[in-house]
Specification:
Catalyzes the transfer of endogenously produced octanoic acid from octanoyl-acyl-carrier-protein onto the lipoyl domains of lipoate-dependent enzymes. Lipoyl-ACP can also act as a substrate although octanoyl-ACP is likely to be the physiological substrate. Belongs to the LipB family. The protein has about 210 residues and is of the alpha+beta class. It contains four helices and twelve strands. The strands form two sheets. Strands 1, 2, 3, 7, 8, 9, 10, 11 and 12 form a nine-stranded mixed sheet that branches. Strands 5-4-6 form a three-stranded mixed sheet, with no helix packed on it. A hairpin with a 2-residue loop joins β8 and β9. α2 packs across α4. It starts with a strand and ends in a 6-residue tail after the last helix.
Length: about 210
C-alpha cells in the first residue's frame, strides 16, 4: 500500500527481509536520482537481523556468532526486528546539501512521534538518535535510532523506532557502539502496549517535515 502527501509517497511494505528491503532501497534510489520517481519513504518491519554500519568495531559485534549484515550507512551496529518500525526515506536533498540539517529533521520527527504517545524524548549531545533522559529508572536510553547515507544528493537508509520489540536482542551487542546507556521502547517506557500498527500512521502523517 502507498499514499502520497505533500509530494512524498509513503510505501507500506509490511514485514520485509533486510536484503530484499536493501534491494528495493537501491532501486528506488536510482529512480529518484534519475528523476523517474519522486521522494519516497519505505515503512516496514524486518525479521530479526543485526546490521553494522561503517564505524562498527569488532568488539561491538555479537559474541555468540549471531550473523551480522554489513551495510554502507553511517553509524555502528544495531538490531532490527519484529515490534520495531523502520523507515527508509529516499529523498532528494536541496542544494547546498546539508546532511546535519536532514538528520535534525529526522530526529525531530521521532521526538514529535514520541510526544504524541505521551513520552518525553530528545537529543543527547554527541550521540545520534532519540533518547529518553536519565531518571530514577536508569541512565539515558535510546528509543529510536538513525543511520543514513547520502549518494548523488539522495538519501538512503534512515530510522527505526522501538514500539513493542523484545529488547533482549540488544543485549548481544553494544548497540550503536554505546556502552554506558540503555535501549528502550515506547511500550517499556509508557507501561502499556504500543504497537507498530499504532505508530505507523503517526509517523506517516509527519513525514512531510523531512522535506526542507
Amino acid at each position: 500500500m502507498s499514499a502520497t502527501t505533500s509530494g512524498l509517497t509513503a510505501v507500506h511494505a509490511g514485514v520485509l527481509d533486510y536484503s530484499a528491503a536493501w534491494d528495493e532501497q537501491r532501486r528506488l534510489h536510482e529512480a529518484v536520482v534519475s528523476g523517474e520517481r519522486g521522494d519516497t519513504v519505505l515503512l516496514l518491519e524486518h525479521p530479526s537481523v543485526y546490521t553494522a554500519g561503517k564505524r562498527t568495531e569488532p568488539w561491538d559485534r555479537p559474541v555468540d556468532g549471531t550473523p551480522v549484515i554489513d551495510v554502507d550507512r553511517g553509524g555502528k551496529i544495531t538490531w532490527h526486528g519484529p515490534g520495531q518500525l523502520v523507515g527508509y526515506p529516499i529523498l532528494r536533498l536541496p542544494d547546498p546539501i546539508d546532511v546535519v540539517a536532514y538528520v535534525r529533521r529526522v530526529e525531530q520527527l521521532l521526538i514529535d512521534v514520541c510526544a504524541e504517545f505521551g513520552l518525553t524524548a530528545g537529543r543527547i549531545e554527541g550521540r545520534s538518535g532519540v533518547w529518553v533522559p536519565a531518571d530514577d529508572r536508569g541512565p539515558a536510553r535510546k528509543v529510536a535510532a538513525i543511520g543514513i547515507r547520502v549518494a548523488r544528493e539522495v538519501t538512503l537508509h534512515g530510522f527505526s523506532i522501538n514500539c513493542d520489540c523484545d529488547l533482549a536482542y540488544f543485549d548481544r551487542i553494544v548497540p550503536c557502539g554505546i556502552r554506558d546507556a540503555g535501549v528502550t521502547s515506547l511500550t517499556a517506557e509508557l507501561g502499556r502496549p504500543v504497537t507498530v500498527a499504532d505508530v505507523l500512521p503517526v509517523v506517516e502523517r509527519r513525514l512531510p517535515m523531512l522535506l526542507a
